[in-house]
Amino acid sequence: MNGKREYPLRVDLARVKAERLEIHADLSLDEQLREVLLRYCFDEEDRQAGMASFGTAYYKSKIRHTVYAIVTGLLEPDEPQDLLLEYQAASTRKPVKGLQRVSRLFAALRPISNDLTFLCFATFSYSWTTYTSVPTLPMKMRESEALPFDEIRGLRLVRLRDGKVVYSAILDRPTDEDVSQMISFTYQGRFTPQVPGEILTRATEISLRFVSEHPEERTE
Predict the structure, then answer these.
(1) Where are the beta strands (DSSP E) in the chain?
(2) What are the sequence ranges of the domains in the chain?
(3) pTM for the complete prediction?
């Protein structure tokens, strides 16, 4: 028997050059599930606000990661509850003592069987020594007194299908050393411990469409 424990919630952002993953969803929780989450409120102030918070720190690819989750609206039965799940790599934040682990949230919400729509945001950073953005940035402009800028260092690009945005990618060259991206899209699925990994895989697939790898030494 394999004694190795698996933690599907502990996704590896560092391995795919991601820095942050943010997942939002609207939940329609019945009274029983709201009461369960209210037991996990960090303190009385959060309980009165109808907010349950969770946090976990872990290591992947030898990099410290954190994941936080917040569910709000637990005292408003006629309104959807808001879920925020946020992962960060190389995080200096530390879950405060007494904060429940994020796995408790997923265990509590296991009865939810319907698919949810997750609004997803992911940031990536690629080293300019080995990667180029697609399209290549910066775009240098002709010198002109009529223009108030000299280079285009950032772009927002979208994929459309039937007039709807499938995904969006904001590309940036904030410095001469890296290429930064903000990827956004929606994802349909059940609220399971596997869904953050599935969303990160989708985000990575989109991200890689906007970079080109150049292993040869760059001279610029």
Answers:
(1) 18-27, 52-60, 63-72, 81-89, 116-127, 131-133, 139-140, 151-152, 154-161, 164-172, 178-189, 211-213
(2) 14-213
(3) 0.90
